[in-house]
C-alpha cells in the first residue's frame, strides 16, 4: 500500500491539479505493478503440493458433474412446469367439436392460471 490516497484528505492537494495528477499517476503505477506481479508469477513454481502435477478427474468426479447437471435440468423442468399454463381437457374437446361443426368460437378465457 502506498500513502498517496491519504494525501487527498488535504484540501490543498484536492484543489491542486498537478497534485491530483500525480496521485492518479501513482495509483495507476500501483495498479499496473500489481497486475504484472500477479500475471508474472509462474504457476509451475508453486509451493502447494496439489499444484505439482496435472489434475486428472476420476470416475467419481465425472459422476458428480453429470449428477449435478441432471439435478439442475430436473429441477429446472419441475419449476418450469409449476408455472406453465394449463387448458382443461373438457374445453379442448369442446373447441374440437365446435371446429368440426363449423361454429364460430366464442370469445372467452381458455387459459387459466393456477
Structural shape: elongated
Q: Low-confidence parts, pLDDT < 50 over ≥5 residues?
A: none
Question: Helix/strand/pairing class, anyone?
Answer: mainly alpha
Overall pLDDT score: 78
List strands and helices in order, with pairings.
Elements: H1 11-15, H2 17-40, H3 59-82, H4 89-101
Brief characterization of the structure:
With 114 residues, the chain is an all-alpha fold. It is built from four helices and no strands.
Description:
The chain is mainly α and 114 residues long. It has one domain (4-101). The protein is 58% helix and 0% strand. The chain contains four helices and no strands. It has helices at 11-15, 17-40, 59-82, 89-101. The longest helix is centred in the first third of the chain and has 24 residues, at 17-40. The chain is elongated and about 90 Å long.
Amino acid at each position: 500500500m502506498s500513502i498517496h490516497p491519504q494525501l487527498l484528505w488535504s484540501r490543498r492537494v484536492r484543489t491542486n491539479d498537478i497534485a491530483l495528477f500525480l496521485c492518479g499517476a501513482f495509483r495507476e503505477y500501483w495498479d499496473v505493478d500489481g497486475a504484472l506481479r500477479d500475471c508474472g508469477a509462474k504457476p509451475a513454481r508453486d509451493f502447494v503440493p496439489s499444484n505439482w502435477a496435472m489434475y486428472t478427474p476420476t470416475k467419481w468426479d465425472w459422476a458428480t458433474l453429470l449428477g449435478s447437471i441432471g439435478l439442475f435440468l430436473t429441477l429446472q423442468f419441475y419449476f418450469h412446469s409449476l408455472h406453465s399454463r394449463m387448458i382443461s381437457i373438457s374445453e379442448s374437446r369442446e373447441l374440437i367439436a365446435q371446429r368440426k361443426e363449423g361454429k364460430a368460437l366464442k370469445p372467452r378465457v381458455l387459459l387459466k392460471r393456477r
